[in-house]
Amino acid sequence: MKIVKQLKYILMSNILFLIIACDRNLTTSLSHSVIDGEESPSSQVFSPLDYDSLEVWLDANDSTTLFQSSSCLTPALNQGDDVQCWLDKSGQGNHATMSVALQNPTLNLLDNIGSVEFDGIDDHFDNAHSFNSRTVFIIYKMDSGLQQATDLAQLWGQYSAGHLAPDARSVGFWSFDGNVSQQAIYSMSGNTYSPTTTGSSFYSWVYDQFDLVAAEFTNDVAITRQVIGSLTPTFSVGVHQFGGQISEILVYSDTLTTLEHQKIEGYLACKWGLQTNLPSLHPYKVICP
Ligand SMILES: [Ca+2]
């Protein structure tokens, strides 16, 4: 009887040992897979903040950055809501605001996952911000129902320093110089950059399509007043206005390597459903950064 009890004890101890051993192996392998996941560069999600020269990041897909009041207190969440404040996510405080009623753009959630719509009449943002800009990326749409054919339609910049502006007076033409002699190379849809120019239709904008435009200025554009949607104050509000939608704006104070700007193009194309527009050899044609 005593021998049987001892055998039972030995058997139970072994089973207990096996259970503990199995459990430890499971815990160890789970810990490993989590740590491996954190350490693997391929699992990192790209952010525009990964390049430290980011000066402006306006992102209409982030509803926490859009407000109906210029004091940035009342969220803009619904179709057609006023947007008097669009918070900059770069950390540099280069927010876009407009406190004049009816001159503020509005929220458009209809044909994209988020955009800020400018009426082509007087909507714009105008802020006294001082920073150097060198490389700019914008997701935008020229809207044939809103854009005045007589206008040079500034997306971003300062007319007296340099800007990124589709010109509706000559369909497809881009302007970079404003009323100075600023030059840039530029691309659309992730293509290779154009030759240096002050303005060109080397890559042409078209109406009613969201697209990605990128420009790298030859020299720093020293911004003292960031204007989005108008050529004011050089021209009165209403004289040259942008009519359409803007979904995202990224401005860097530095030049970027080919791999860096391709990564940003990939990030924007993935986010806004524009990967099919990228050229076939683009590194982010299929995968996302
Ligand atoms: Ca208006």
Structural classification: alpha+beta
Report the CATH C-level class. Answer: Mainly Beta
**Quaternary form:** single chain
Mind telling me which CATH architecture this is?
Sandwich
Number of H/I helices? 2
Bound molecules: calcium ion
Our estimate of the beta-strand percent is 25-35%
The total tally of domains equals 1
Radius of gyration: 26 Å
Q: Sketch the topology as an H/E string, one letter per element.
A: HEEEEEEEEEEEEEEEEH
Distance between the termini: 70 Å
Poorly predicted parts: 1-5, 7-42
Sheet having the most strands: 7 strands, antiparallel
> How many DSSP-defined strands?
16
Shape: globular
According to CATH, the fold-level topology is Jelly Rolls
Q: Mean pLDDT across all residues, rounded?
A: 89
Relative helix content: 10-25%
Structure, described:
This protein has 289 residues and is of the alpha+beta class. It has one domain: Jelly Rolls. Helix content is 18%, strand content 28%. It contains two helices and 16 strands. It has helices at residues 2-39, 258-271; strands at 54-59, 66-67, 85-86, 96-97, 106-108, 115-119, 125-127, 131-142, 156-158, 162-167, 173-175, 184-188, 199-200, 211-223, 226-228, 243-252. Strands 1, 5, 6, 8, 12, 14 and 16 form a seven-stranded antiparallel β-sheet that branches. Strand 9 (156-158) and strand 10 (162-167) form a beta hairpin. The longest helix has 38 residues, at 2-39. It is globular and about 45 Å long. The site of calcium ion (CA) has 6 residues, from loops. Residues 102-103, 119, 121-123 line the site of calcium ion.
